[in-house]
Amino acid sequence: MQTLDSLEQGRQLFRLKGTQRILMAHPFSNMPTPYQVISEDRKTYYANCAWDSIGIHILLRGPVQIKSYCFHCSDPIELALRNEEILKKKPANVLIHFSKPVSQWLEDIVDTCANNMNFFGSEGHLQEWKAENPGKPGYPVTFDQIIEMSRFNYRDRLNFDYERPSNDERSAFFASIGLAGDFWQS
Hints:
The protein is of the alpha+beta class. It has six helices and eleven strands.
């Protein structure tokens, strides 16, 4: 139990409040979510959010299929990734949107992942969703940016000596890939 406490304090995993049950071990979810990741050997994993689904590909270092849905209309979304590249996007205009500022991510990581890092089938669907949710500003990220973000956050996560990037390192990295401004500051 001391090990789980230490991992949770280091924000490596999160337990279901009041239990010892592991809810999240980023980028993996310990329960089914709308972000299904299927490996080349047909193993199914669940991610916590759209970003984590890409992160699983980076962490596993193998081809994956991602099955999810549009956060606005619930239409299916499918992605195929190999060698840290997006090979297929269905629909073709799918995007990932972040609607909670980085400085608030860890206040409630379950809410952050489940409701604030999502796929949208198109820019039009995102704009309709924003019109219906005026308190959620946020920004879409490109697939090149999300691949870079996943490399930064997950590539070395299985190494024994892995350490989470500091807030300053994360903010500098985001700025280096064009994600600057208050929204992206830790």
